[in-house]
Amino acid sequence: MVKVGEQEVLLVNHENTIYALNPKCPHLGLSLKSGKITDDGQGPVITCKFHQSKFNLKTGECAAWSQSFLGIPGTGIIGGVVGNMGGPKHSPATVYSVEVDGEGSVMVDISKTGQSGCKV
């Protein structure tokens, strides 16, 4: 986690690519900091540990919206109610432009959103 001005930014290094995103899940604003990183075949995603919403690290696009409560199997009805709280259903995560200079310094531009990822 780093700060760019007053904005907190979560940096993720997945398979030698750095991604930058807003650390708050669009679902209920809970932290993505402890989210699990996987590759769903459409690119790397981060999964919110609280409600299992998934977001593409490169585009921020919602890959899966909350279908359970706290990840507990069989809580789909509660997940459906909770899934309708917070941000609009299937809201994307905010991802930021990332560059890595020749010395390895990571630069995040929070004014450029919608695409993230830079090979290191």
From TrEMBL:
<dbReference type="Pfam" id="PF00355">
    <property type="entry name" value="Rieske"/>
</dbReference>
<dbReference type="GO" id="GO:0051537">
    <property type="term" value="F:2 iron, 2 sulfur cluster binding"/>
</dbReference>
<keyword id="KW-0411">Iron-sulfur</keyword>
<dbReference type="InterPro" id="IPR036922">
    <property type="entry name" value="Rieske_2Fe-2S_sf"/>
</dbReference>
<feature type="domain" description="Rieske">
    <location>
        <begin position="1"/>
        <end position="84"/>
    </location>
</feature>
<keyword id="KW-0479">Metal-binding</keyword>
<protein>
    <recommendedName>
        <fullName>Rieske domain-containing protein</fullName>
    </recommendedName>
</protein>
<keyword id="KW-0408">Iron</keyword>
<dbReference type="GO" id="GO:0046872">
    <property type="term" value="F:metal ion binding"/>
</dbReference>
<dbReference type="InterPro" id="IPR017941">
    <property type="entry name" value="Rieske_2Fe-2S"/>
</dbReference>
<keyword id="KW-0001">2Fe-2S</keyword>
